[in-house]
Amino acid sequence: MENTQSKHSNDIRLVIVSPCYNEEMQIAESSAKLNGVVDSLIAKGKISSDSIILFVNDGSTDHTWDEIVKAHQSSSRVCGLNMATNVGHQSAIMAGMMTARSLADAVITIDSDLQDDTNAIESMVDKYRDGANVVYGVKKDRKADPWHKRKTASLFYHVQEFLGVKTIKNHADFRLLSRRALDTLASYPERNIFLRGMIPLMGYDAVTVDDTLSPRKTGESKYTLGRQIHLAIDGITSFTTKPLEHIFIWGVAMLGIAFLMFVNVVVAMIIGRAIAGWASIMLSIWFIGAILTMGVGLIGIYIGKMYLEIKQRPMYRISESIGL
């Protein structure tokens, strides 16, 4: 758990990266609250006075960027990155971290809705000062989340565990990374990124802090069911080929069932009890067709990811920045 940090505590420059999408109603409150956290840490001598807060506007369609500009005008500590287009939550976080990499000794990522516990930021800094390169905020409970989100999240973690994807249970994207960890992450060339899987893959000894989830005060979650499903598919297909192995196993099982059905038909013909069964034939056709279609679709997802990786297009493009 050793890192290369050799500065005194009050020389540690912290950058808090906060991705946001259509959060115009939340920015002012988030800025004020994060400023309070930074002020407290500076007063306690745990970070340097030139630590900053970096909001990353992920191509919002409302006035989120205007609110970030206003927040910067109120506090020079608040900075902003404006993506040229919506690149997705994971890429927006990556843009913020890679921008902050040359500016910071440590980076903390936290969503701008601040449902994660900002009080845990101090614990993360303490863990970093003790030598941790990676600190995860792990939710003690998800009572603040809607029922359906709790259930889908639980299913998500179980499926990932079953398929061999290494992640931290009940951890989203609230974490601290040292500059050393950021440098390692920057060496990963993937375009289809899933940070919850990539960061454990780096192999650093990591520690956790408790994260108590709070209800949103304004707006609504941008993680719709569709976005959750997309994230789950990315997480699985980017880190394991086991679904392809399972398709092969299902194919072998279906071949065995087909053989048993063939034996049954032959026996029925021999003893004179063969009955033409339209329903059973159609059911078999539809069942096999569904399995084949799912298999082809899954293989298509993997091929599509290979296609995107081969093109090597930029993960994001920053149209403008403020305060940097």
Characterize the structure shown.
This protein is of the alpha/beta class. It has two domains: about 10-220 and about 320, Alpha-Beta Complex (Spore Coat Polysaccharide Biosynthesis Protein SpsA, Chain A); about 240-310. About 50% of the residues lie in helices and about 15% in strands. The protein has ten helices and eight strands. The protein has helices spanning about 25-45, 65-75, 90-100, 120-130, 145-160, 180-185, 195-200, 225-235, 240-270, 280-310; strands spanning about 15-20, 50-55, 80-85, 105-110, 135-140, 170-180, 205-210, 320. Helix 5 (about 145-160) packs parallel to helix 8 and helix 9 runs antiparallel to helix 10 (about 280-310). The two termini are about 30 Å apart.
Overall mean confidence score, pLDDT: 82
Count of structural domains: 2
H-E order = EHEHEHEHEHEHHEHHHE
- The CATH architecture of the largest domain comes to Alpha-Beta Complex
Shape: elongated
N-end to C-end Cα span:
31 Å
Portion of residues within helices: 40-55%
Radius of gyration: 25 Å
Strand order of the largest sheet: 7-5-6-4-1-2-3-8
CATH class of the largest domain: Alpha Beta
Short description:
With 324 residues, the protein is of the alpha/beta class.
List the helices and strands and how they pair.
Blueprint: E1 14-20, H1 27-43, E2 52-57, H2 64-74, E3 78-83, H3 89-100, E4 106-109, H4 120-129, E5 134-139, H5 147-162, E6 171-178, H6 179-186, H7 195-201, E7 206-211, H8 225-237, H9 242-270, H10 278-311, E8 318-322
Parallel strand pairs: 1-2, 1-4, 2-3, 5-7
Antiparallel strand pairs: 3-8, 4-6, 5-6
Helix pairs in contact: 5-8, 9-10
